[in-house]
What does this fold into?
Amino acid sequence: MGVRRAVEMAWQASAANVDLPAGQAAGQNRQVYTLGPLIHNPRVLEDLEERGIRVLNEGEIDLAWNPALNESENPTVIIRAHGIAPQTEAGLARLNVRVLDATCPHVKVSQMKARSFAERGYRIFLAGEENHAEIAGILGYAQTSNAVPSCYVVGNPSEAESAALELSRREPGAKTVLIGQTTISTQEYGAISERLRQFFPGIEIVDTICGATADRQDALRELCGKADAVIVVGGRESANTRRLLSLARELGKPAWLAETVKDLPPEIKVYKTVGLCAGASTPDSLISEIEEALAKF
It folds into this structure.
């Protein structure tokens, strides 16, 4: 999975600094950065920080290094699982840094498809959260030099209808395509696509939902058929974790999100059967901790 791959890459990069061969000078060490939070899970981010891996915001790129002054440091920068815009990546390439690309392979496919459709003159609808890092990165690939907007981010069917109405008035014959955030639910994606088809019957729908995300959502539906309540384990900033929480509630189950054992609600004790699920970026150790705590109830 993309998030586990990104964490493993970060661990390997930090291990290269920690486990120096005998006689190697510490000055040959590389400082390791992640461009933005590597993944959306507080426990994992704390672990990375303990390993000496620092988080760098995209806006700090030009301020953080001067190639002429840092030739000896030559730091490592890890592109997070959500990916970044090509313009940002080009900025990294101009610096004296070693870049490790931990972009999730599924996200990378979405980026390349967005670029391809944009180059062919398509108007692109992106289904997802406007402020999410993954969407921001894909937007960078969908941008063209044309002054006319070529990409619209839509978070729900209502937003999709508004964007499609605007585009249909300006370009009624526009070639259109829908690309989704990899963590969007299949039902939400389907509802958005149906709304867009009302304005553009020939719109191309690209299947960009991560298979693991769909599997988690299907497993949660099955779980909700057996459980009286649900605990979703994961980070509050994680899009796929929040969607699992929303799905459980849509299915009529009392549900809570828990980043740690402390987040377990006292009222969970009144339920006979409690279902447990987790977001993609949730470490197994945290799932085990919360499972043990629930068992004591």
